[in-house]
Amino acid sequence: MNLRALCLAASAYGALASGIVHAETIEVSSxxxxxxxxxxxxxxxxxxxxxxxxxxxxxAARLGLLFADHHGFEEELEIRGTxxxxxxxxxxxxxxxxxxxxxxxxNEMRVGFIPNKGPARxxxxxxxxxxxxxxFRYELLPTEALGGDIRITDELTQFNIxxxxxxxxxxSRQFNRYEYIYRTGKAAxxxxxxxxxxxxxxxxxxxxxxxxxxxxxxxxxLLALRPGSFEATLRPGSDGIKVHTTAPxxxxxxxxxxxxxxxxLINSDIILNLNEPNKLxxxxxxxxxxxxxxxxxxxxxxxTWGNDGVHGANNEDTKxxxxxxxxxxxxxxxxxxxxxxxxGDWFNNGELFNFTEAYPDFDLEELSKxxxxxxxxxxxxxxxxxxxxxxxxxxxxxxxxYEKVGVTQVKTGYVADAGDIVSYDEDGVKQYxxxxxxxxxxxxxxAVREAAKRKISINAHEPVKDTGLxxxxxxxxxxxxxxxxxxxxxxxxxxxxxxxxxxxxxRMLSGPMDFTPGIFNLRPNEKPPVRExxxxxxxxxxxxxxxxxxxxxxxxxxxxxxMAADLPEHYEERMEAFQFIKDVPADWEESVALEGEVGEYVxxxxxxxxxxxxxxGAVTDATARNVTVTLDFLEPGATYTAQVYRDGDDxxxxxxxxxxxxxxxxxxxxxxxxxxxASSGGAAVRFIKQ
Length: 690
Hints:
Among the domains are: 271 residues, Beta-galactosidase, Chain A, domain 5, CATH 2.70.98; 150 residues, Golgi alpha-mannosidase II (Immunoglobulin-like), CATH 2.60.40. 17% of the residues lie in helices and 34% in strands. The protein contains 13 helices and 39 strands. The strands form eight sheets. Strands 6, 7, 8, 9, 10, 13, 14, 16, 17, 21 and 22 form an eleven-stranded antiparallel beta sheet that branches. Strands 30-29-26-25-24-23-31 form a seven-stranded parallel beta sheet. Strands 32-33-34-39-36-37 form a six-stranded antiparallel beta sheet. The longest helix is centred in the middle third of the chain and has 18 residues. About 1% of the residues have low confidence.
């Protein structure tokens, strides 16, 4: 389609009288022909329908946009231009990731809509259909009627799943952002859900809805219209407007992953492929790896962030962690609480954080030099308490300081209730924004770009959700964006046994997560307090896993920055199990989900980048089970020694979490391996090619 021609057509057609009867339907299918999208203007509405293997799996759903000051695209629409469907089949290389080579294979259809009523205006909807799902987005074309500033008030995109589908989701518009225990139920009871949200239709077909390339727009959640039918709802800014823009303009992609089984969702690269290629050029300075840190000690009240006598970020403790990291091959040491601002009620006093001034007992420059002398780097930390205005005012100086002392990775934090991000308007009036508003989408990209100028990578906590922008900005390495390990120290309740078996098929579909695994003291709050006036948390707050499951997390939950989160002394008590954490990489040549069911269990295998070793992780919910996997991912004809770390026969997350077995056996490709998993247990395997 020639976009200029469509604009001219809009100008001419918009002058015609309304009431023209017209219905057109056009289609595009996936390269393998299994998925078909039909787009129609029947009844004057822009709609799309999705079929799988000839069966309609998502009935006709609306498309459109509404504006505050312009006529929108809602009704009396007609298809007035289409392009010949095109095919793309290319392979690109990730600088780091779940797999080195990514195939980007899709068929594309571009559909132009023009209203037959009101001023001339044009909208294009682009569909890209892959073998594992589809993405679509809107493009506003510049016409006289869409001139000047455009304020989007609603997106009319709908998704029809069906009331009887099973659903796994977290609630949207709640105070704790994305950090909720997953809810499980029928699609009919889902009201307002964050994406990714995953569904399983009665036929067994699995569908996940999310978005890709969230840039200069606000985040999308799903709002129930009728049972099993949802509409995209955008997070508003402090002025109530969802998105401020001008034409021409492209929205993020709305994504629908489709697979016949749960594992198929994990094996899709749709989110990455719908993002633009790397814009940073040479990113050899972006380094994946494992790290330890002064972090978990604060969560279990062994140390504190503030300077009150048991301050964690002190020179002596930091050197101890650096020595431990150097001895065991870790690349980084995260230090939280090093800078001024943590004393008192830091949650509500974000304006007090100073990102260049350290507490008196912490010498950033000297410690960084000490770390680098041992082949380790300090990982920086910037907690903002949601006061983005204060952070942005200091961001340049803060990143300059890190660049000066050799800090190349920064963990950022935005701890604040959802909707309490602090900004100021042009008149200096304080405003409050949502964590996933257009304001924060812009802020995160600003931080990533500024960091890139200094060859610094970002690990964002309390972030905007992942939409694959790590492809475009490879220094945006990982983030939080769901309930992580910290909730097992003080969460009430802590993460339940099924948590990981849901995360793998929901949050993890969007991209890497800094879950911070590897807790070896599984009952941390039962230890005596370090000082008489301090108290541990509730003893019931603890990881509801076996120790073997903690090892499996390093394979199941992908992150290019992977933390060994527990205290060094806890690892030293079980060095034979710690060996797996030392051996497992954080960067991969290939990854494949092998088996699983949402909320029940998952098994994933990954090959070490640049090597021949494979690693496998399998975890289960509270139900003990045997998981049998076929080793067809191994090199044919080769023999491998499998080092297996699994639950003991008497292991149980509640009564006997430390029971584990380490054993070895020789195996070849095509053989099967059965892994016994205890209640909330796991297994971790390293396959060493002989």
